Amino acid sequence: MALPEDAHIGSVSLTVRDLDRSIAFYRDGLGFRVLTETAVEAALSADGVRTLVELHERADAVLRPRRCTGLFHFAILVPTRAALGRSLRHLTDEGWPLTGVADHLVSEALYLSDPDGLGIEIYGDRPRETWTRVGGQVMMATDPLDLESVANEPGAERSWTGLDAATVIGHVHLHVASLVDAERLYCGVVGFEPTMRTYPGALFVAAGGYHHHLGVNTWMGEGAPAPPGHAVGLRWFSVYARELPAAEVVDDATRTVVSLGPG
User: Does a structural domain hold residue 240?
Assistant: First the structure.
């Protein structure tokens, strides 16, 4: 059964090693607001109401080996190109290094890592009517991004006040051991639909005709399981829709829990 048309990623939950350090980065670097905070947990928001990122401290957490299944990156979707430009300007002013940039045809993206090395994408979508579809697939690429154009987008020069209130979590991208098994879970069980299969070593899936709510790849090879005990990385992500029966699916291969429920 396919997910409803309005299904989308709701939030992500992350394990970090130093909560204060991570809060400082997500608040001062990325522009989130802190909704709630305890000694070991924090909830972060863009609009001051809905949690988009949960941080959970495990001081004994180990770094995840590079060739390991788990989080590749999670993606913060800003509502306008001007908002993307403001994030770019702010990160540059703060001296936080980008690990990459890309024009994906359907979107423009900035890549960086948090203090624990967790991958983050900040991106803005191009209008959906400009996306190219061939044979039922959304065409995406990894082309050079015109950073100067993004930084000089009208409105990008406005003073930084944090993330726009309309910011959401746009997608999650995982490194998995098997594309076949991942498709069986996320399409066959969860209900996403494939949107692009032609990118080597990757599969992109979504609900409602979006370019992708979830990406999975085997670019690191088959990948070893996450280390025993606790490692920094993704604890779970949620998928929301207005009408969705409550359910929970646990993917042992990626150590990801997908929480399904109304929201």
Answer: yes
pLDDT digits (tens, 9 = 90+) for 136-161: 899 999 999 999 999 999 999 999 99
Question: What is the domain extent for residue 120?
Answer: 8-262
Phi-psi bin for 195: left (phi > 0), alpha (psi -120 to 50), beta?
alpha
* Domain contains 241: yes
Q: Sort 219 into a burial class: Cβ within 10 Å, 0-12 / 13-18 / 19+.
A: exposed
Tell me: pLDDT of 104 over 50: yes
Q: How far is CA 153 from CA 146, 166, 202, in A?
A: 11, 18, 32
- For tokens 């920094």, what's the residue? 232
The structure's pTM equals 0.91
Task: Say if 28 falls within a structural domain.
Answer: yes
CA 123 vs. chain centroid, Å, equals 10
Q: How far apart are the first and last CA of the chain?
A: 19
Each residue's pLDDT tens digit, 170-196? 999 999 989 999 999 999 999 999 999
> What's 186's domain CATH number?
3.10.180.10
Chain centre distance of CA 59? 24
pLDDT average, residue stretch 123-130:
97
Question: Per the domain annotation, does 1 fall within a domain?
Answer: no
Dump the DSSP string for 64-77: PPSSBSEEEEEEEE
